[in-house]
Specification:
The chain has 140 residues and is an all-alpha fold. It has a two-stranded antiparallel ribbon with strand order 1-2. Helix 1 runs antiparallel to helix 2.
């Protein structure tokens, strides 16, 4: 079991890593340096720092430095995406893939059913028109 001090030092390391990453890999307004300082001194949490940076990224105020912005090869990009998915969903990629396959099968079955219905409607259009042309308006 992790002790309180060990947990605090781990969180501190994460904040230091975040601050270092933002300083090295991102361009941001000068006032964001104050926010980084607050995170380093423990006045705000790693989560608050990530949310602040996320807001700036969403607004386009904070950007990745050119040397870090997409210099990945397709293979490296694939590895990065797989890492994000693994971090989010855990190691159970096989279940995620199986869920995707099941969803795809359900969508294909729905499409087949819809096409069968459309073929039935197209084949019976004349019968439908005859049925409706023979009816009178209820107000007549």
């Amino acid at each position: 079991m992790t002790g309180r001090n060990e947990l605090a030092s781990t969180l501190g390391t994460n904040v230091k890593l975040l601050v270092e990453t933002y300083r090295q890999q991102y361009n941001y307004p000068s006032w964001f340096e104050n926010t980084l300082g607050y995170a380093e001194s423990g006045q705000i949490s790693a989560l608050a720092l990530q949310q602040a940076a996320g807001n700036l990224l969403d607004e386009g105020i904070m950007t990745r430095k050119p040397q870090f912005a997409g210099g990945l090869t397709p293979t490296d990009r694939k590895r990065e995406i797989e890492k994000v998915v693994t971090d989010y969903y855990g190691d159970d990629i096989a279940n995620l893939y199986a869920d995707h396959q099941n969803q795809e099968a359900r969508l294909n079955a729905a499409l087949t059913h819809r096409e069968a219905n459309q073929a039935n409607i197209s084949a019976n259009t004349n019968k439908i028109e005859e049925l409706f042309s023979g009816q009178q308006n209820i107000y007549d």
